[in-house]
Specification:
Growth Hormone, Chain: A, 13 helices, globular
């Protein structure tokens, strides 16, 4: 759905598309809890995935338009609240399940929360989804758009590596007990939330170029510490440093999309989001392939090199 979201937002507006996709999420969640056959699960997952993809793109389109109109850094805060939503959603659903609530009742509570948020804040969403009333429906991505998409792919790949491989790294290479294997990703996530919630002030003070440069270097350093210091505490610190350093890279790259003139904003955001999420989908499998053929440490070292490429591309933050 992501490649088409920009066109749909331009034609029907951010408000309508976010409403439709959010309500589809609310319908799909209960179906996921009660589906009793493979076809039913497939249909529910396809609906849920399409709705999530639409929301992810369109909220970023609105965020880019709003930030550009405001004249100040806002993107890190937007992405920070996305991370907070992940914590609240996972935590509340887990708490309900722990309390003995059925999976269906738990997801119905989540769906109800989404509906309440829509009713309170939905009217403030933009009724349009493009700054150009008669803009093109498709432009082949090129130049800086492709570069930003590739850089987002690399950063999202690093995030996917933490999600899928940090626990394996800690248990298999650092001897951490399985019950504590999730600490690596937890520290990474907390550091990323902290970095993003404070990121707008940091970006305003130091500028996007320094965020990309030092963020990429710091992220790579975090992985180097985790890989080459054979101590689980050092590995946890490395994962924390990676989360903190990488936290504002993607928000800065999305801010650049609002200043570039190569593509309409809605199409640029759609393209970059699609490429970025491809990193989360393909990244863990890519790392697993290298780990199986050689070693997990070498696979994470490849990710380190990618993060240094991000740092070396910091000049794009000055593009307008």
């Amino acid at each position: 759905m992501m490649p088409f979201a920009g066109v749909l937002a331009a034609r029907f507006g951010c408000r309508l598309m976010i409403w439709i996709a959010s309500l589809l999420i609310c319908v799909s969640l209960p179906l996921l809890a009660v589906a009793a056959s493979v076809p039913a699960i497939v249909i529910a997952l396809l609906s849920f995935g399409a709705a999530i993809g639409m929301v992810d793109v369109v909220v970023n389109i609105q965020a880019v338009i709003v930030e550009k109109a405001s004249g100040r850094a806002m993107m890190s805060g937007f992405h920070g609240l996305w991370s907070v939503g992940g914590f609240v959603g996972a935590g509340s659903a887990s708490g309900l399940l722990w309390a003995g609530v059925s999976p269906l009742a738990a997801v119905l509570c989540v769906a109800a929360m989404i509906v309440v948020l829509l009713l309170i804040f939905g009217r403030y969403l933009l009724p349009y989804g493009s700054e150009e009333k008669n803009g093109p429906l498709f432009v082949f991505p090129k130049g800086i758009i492709l570069l930003i998409g590739i850089l987002c792919f690399m950063v999202f790949l690093a995030e996917g590596a933490m999600l899928d491989w940090s626990a394996v790294f800690l248990t298999s290479l650092r001897g951490v007990e399985f019950s504590y294997a999730g600490l690596g990703y937890s520290l990474f996530s907390v550091a990323m939330v902290i970095g993003r919630l404070t990121g707008d002030r940091i970006v305003s003070k130091f500028g996007g170029k320094k965020i990309l440069l030092y963020g990429g270097i710091g992220s790579a350093l975090g992985l180097v510490i985790a890989i080459f210091i054979p101590n689980w505490i050092a590995s946890l610190f490395g994962f924390w440093l990676l989360g903190l350093s990488a936290s504002n890279i993607v928000p800065v790259l999305f801010s650049v999309l609002g200043r570039q003139k190569v593509m309409p904003t809605n199409l640029a955001v759609s393209t970059v989001t699609t490429l970025g999420y491809a990193g989360i989908l393909a990244g863990p499998a890519f790392i697993g392939f290298i780990a199986q053929a050689m070693s997990l440490s070498l696979a994470l070292l490849v990710v380190t090199v990618m993060l240094l490429v991000v740092a070396a591309s910091s000049h794009i933050a000055a593009e307008s």
